[in-house]
## 1
Amino acid sequence: NQVENITPKVIDKKVFLIGNGAWQKQTIIELIENSKLKEGGYIVILGLNNNKTDSSGYFLKREFIEQNIMAVHILNFKPEMMLKKTDILAIENANLICILHGNKKRLLRIREDTVLQHAVVEAYNNGTTIAGVGNGASVLGEKLFINYIIENKPGDKRITELKLIDGLGIVKKAIIDDEDFVKYNTELIKEIVYKRNFTFIGLIYQSAVLIKDNGAMAFGKVLLFKPKNAKSPEEIKKELLNKGDDFL
């Protein structure tokens, strides 16, 4: 009997990291093209902000509709909500999952809810394009910074402490945040990048990054800290990437 050679299917994994702000038409087009939505399939927009006045999901849906992509589903989860089986299946089989900007602690439900985490990671491993916006991009990293209140003082003053915690781990050996975080925490970033041999990606307003198995490309201005061959945190430089620059 002749044994048939079966070539394993190559899964093309893609992640978009997008700065919070007004949507750029080119970013929408890149999301559509990289998710092969012109060939069919659908988009799931995940919102975990629990804010009734937050209409960012509907604005994003409108952007896709303007590009003739009509199959767009918005799933807004409140902390106490249980995931329905239909929600899980919708996430696992989507062409594109967009995780909206929101409160980091609420967004961590993606990591803390094992069912939701499994659905997103399973989708990614099967070739679904994952896009994170603002803090929605931060939770995709292996680690992320989060502010914890350690003491409340009189006069509505709070003492907070930055902690580095586990993210969803879709983007390995990386921490993702925005340019404001870089502005106030440059030395801390250098220290963590050096000690952990991580890459830090700082998203500037409206910028985007596409990460594939074979590298990454900036769509707009992006801040980058890489360990390279640094012998101390002080040797790590802040780089400014421009549209079209490759890295990783």
Note: The chain has one domain: 14-247.
## 2
Amino acid sequence: MAKRAGRSPAPSAAAEGARIRSRFERLLDATIAMGTSGSLGELLQRLVDSARDVVGARFAALGVLNPEGDSLAEFVTSGLTEAERARIGDLPRGRGLLGLLISDPRPIRTKEITRHPQRSGFPPHHPTMTSFLGVPVRGRERVFGNLYLTDKQGAQEFSGEDEAIAVALAAQAAVAVEKQRLYEDSQELLGRVRGMQRQRDLFFAMMNHELRNALTGVFGWAERLVRAKSPDGVDRAAHEVYEGAERTITLLNNFL
């Protein structure tokens, strides 16, 4: 009698569940990492490193827009060595696909960069790149920059799921960036206020010194005036008291 084959869970379904769980955990880790303390530069580097890992790309970068929002002012990379960055030379300013994402801040996905109608080519010594995924990092009031991922690992192109994850990361990054910028702006303002307080304290210390000296002189001559026995001494003491009082009033008018 032939043995009847039993039914078992499809390995692909179990593997898919494990894959989704792993991506979710890494996305959660990335979100937590972006909320940790550090400078704005450190935050941006954590963002591109996390995006490259979670989305599964060979390279990742974040282009920070200039205040006018029409070109790139800063370019943070992940996946390139220092030697590779040095060979590439000047960092991009926002042409080709990068420029398209600046002028039309919506997600872009393409299987082959060189076949996209908006391509502009790579500079000499630039690593070869094929697939591309770009999403804007949009704050409450404006687009802060753009997140770029290239060369999907384990597949020929980035998927809709990859795009959704990149968009989620960009949204979390926008919140973290705005929070960090507000913190750094508040620290700068606090530094200015403390500087003004130091200047104020120095001013009052100087005023205290100058007024004390002036009033001490007035008091001294007033005392001589009270104790003077000769008319000449009285006249001189009165004159000095008058001039000392005048100097004190002038000092007050100049500084207060």
Note: The radius of gyration is 35 Å.
## 3
Amino acid sequence: MLIFGVLLLLCVLGFLAVCTYAVIVVPRWSRDGLHANFQAFRFLLYRFRLDSSWFGVLLLLRGPLMSLPIALATDYPPVQVMSLMLVFLVILIIQSKAWPWKVPLLNVLDCFTGFCITMLVASNSLYLGALEGSMKDFADGVGSVIMGMMGAAVTLLFVMTVCALTFRAALGGQQELIAFNLQRTPAPTLAAESLQSMSAKLVEMDRAGLVKALSAMGVYDNKLLLASVSLLGTEVVPSYADQMATRHAEGREDGVGCMFVTD
């Protein structure tokens, strides 16, 4: 049994190592056009935003991290409770900062579910000792309320799943449903006009003035600007380049065909 457990642990660690490597190099794959490599790890990446694709590895780690306290501290329930709460709180903090899912409503529901699970684990710590009278009623009431909140969140997730199967737009794309997007998505034409207008104004600025303007920005504004530039460099510009290359290739094929017919 021990040998089997060690082998299973090695397989899990190897799988996590491969997934971690894929998450690290996926920006390079996207930049170099290695779509086959990206498709091989699509199960790990496609649910999350491009700048938060690493969150899939964190979700894979959550299961083993939840199981380890139960296996390592079998006879110490307080240690199990504290360890589980630590795992959920750390992941909840990271998730609330990264907002990784493509669908905004799913981010809200996932954070809310994590909060409910953390509160449920904390409320279960009340049962570590003997409870009687009003204290037992309070613990039962708190547990029932938290379970009801989790049930409502799971029901809404089920509705989202049904809608995603019915309306294929409900998957984080441009035609996202308003209820899932928590706002109206701006039209791509409006975004394109804004980008082209802003790029024309940036071209007119000299380098010294641009550096001075950027130096006056805050830390979070600079980070957001760099993330936007990175997104343009990895998604918009390569997509346009691929389209132009395809058009040129088709044009050359048509030219060769016309020459062949003429001869």
Note: Residues 252-263 have pLDDT under 50 and may be disordered.
## 4
Amino acid sequence: MEEITLDPLDWTETRLLGHQVMDDMINYLRDLRLRPTWRPVPLAVQESLAQQDIPLRGQNPWQVYDEVRSLILPYPLGNIHPCFWGWVIGTGSPIGVLAELITATMNNQSWGGNQASIYLERQVLRWLKVIMGFPNDDTCSGALVSGTSVATMVALAV
């Protein structure tokens, strides 16, 4: 029986794509100021994205990335642009992008188990307690969550 795997068919090709994506994203962030803060998504792009059939077979990663570059990247919300003043939405940073790459690669789960990410989260929470003047003991605790919406739900539930 053939082994079922999600591994790439060609690791060298995956490495090349990874380097291309990384270079493109660094350039994307570097050149933000050269682009408009926001652009509406053209109707043709909206329809193209909404009308695609479900792929029943694996797709060539380079072709998928080409679609992302042409159909997705040109039309961000705008919150990463330095002149975006529409809403108060946090923005990423180049170093944050690299940190997310590491996090996604490790696919850490901070709920338990003996893994280093648990101890890192606890250390960050201790630092935050010190910064905010909270007691640096077990009477004060917290959790790192994905964003403001989840933080608000957790706060309301507690």
Note: The mean pLDDT is 90.
